[in-house]
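Figure caption, in words: inputs first, then the predicted bound structure.
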Amino acid sequence: MLSLETALTLGNISETELADLMQAASDVREKHWGNVVTYSRKVFVPLTNMCRDTCSYCTFVKHPDHPDANIMSPEQVLATARRGEDQGCKELLFSLGEKPELRYEKARAALNQLGYDSMVAYLADMCQLVLDETSLLPHVNAGTLSDDEIDQLRPYSASMGMMLETISRRLTQKGQAHYACPDKVPVQRLRTLERTGQKQVPFTTGLLIGIGETWEERVEALAAINEAHRRHGHIQEVIIQNFQTKPDIAMANHPEPSLDDMLRTLAVARLMLSPEISLQAPPNLHVRHADYLAAGINDWGGISPVTIDFINPQHSWPEIDALAASTSKAGLTLQERLTIYPRFLRNHDVFMDPALVARASAMARTDGLAKHQVSGDLV
Ligand code: SF4
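Bound structure (iron/sulfur cluster present):
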């Protein structure tokens, strides 16, 4: 494995050094993940687009005064879930802004109308609704979580996620990406990583690169994730996501990370992280995403045949058939996985609430990947 000290020196490397790094990362991928590259066929449910944070790159969030600000009703959640079921999805991913009710009266009132005083309590009930009414496995991306909030969600969510994004405190200063974002203070996110580990939740996290962090800060964030995994064994995947500029964000003129920067970060992540942690990069945020395979990734993340990428709505998902073809061209095979990775399903006594085990096990074949592999894009 690559040490932190060595990784810190790789901020500026030649083309040849990058090629060597990528080869070493690919070798690790091959040794631990074979020739299989996975994805999760999922439907996305943006439960609320209100949020108490104001990240400078976000287009998802809507101020409560905006006409499009909303909290989805149970009926809307179920209607979206059913569209996912019809298209062979196995996972329902709840994504939502962080705790808008703590900052905005209008968000509190909207939640109260639904009969709740906290977004996490509503989320837990919506997960239960999905479990009761559909065949899908819920995964929640609810941001920073307290111990109590994790306890509320764990019985109904097969896995959870929160992008660490960065550990740079500098980026919380005025004019930076995370100014006025209480949930993006790095220590808060590290605490959630730790708490979900203590509570044995299969967890997805990752970095958002190119938002103003230095190479050193990026590498230190990877080291922090790996340390949390070393303590608790709960990190199932790490996503490396590249910042995307958009015309209507505060960071509209901020440069996007280059492809080489992305490849270098992926390769270093593959070499620094425990090899059992899945390494993922989104395929819809770079036209040359197939190159990521040569930098050691083994997963394309969630792809929806039903819903758009709500976080990057200007970048549609690639067709699953096309992704299978480009994966195959690299000598690898695309396979469908569940939201919970095989290693955690095998260790369900530790990592799963008993209520979820029967459903997840019935959805998995003996190697832990999805039993019913849907071929390509149904639509
Ligand atoms: S990126 Fe997430 S935390 Fe930041 S403003 Fe958007 S919804 Fe809120």
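The two ends are 43 Å apart (CA to CA).
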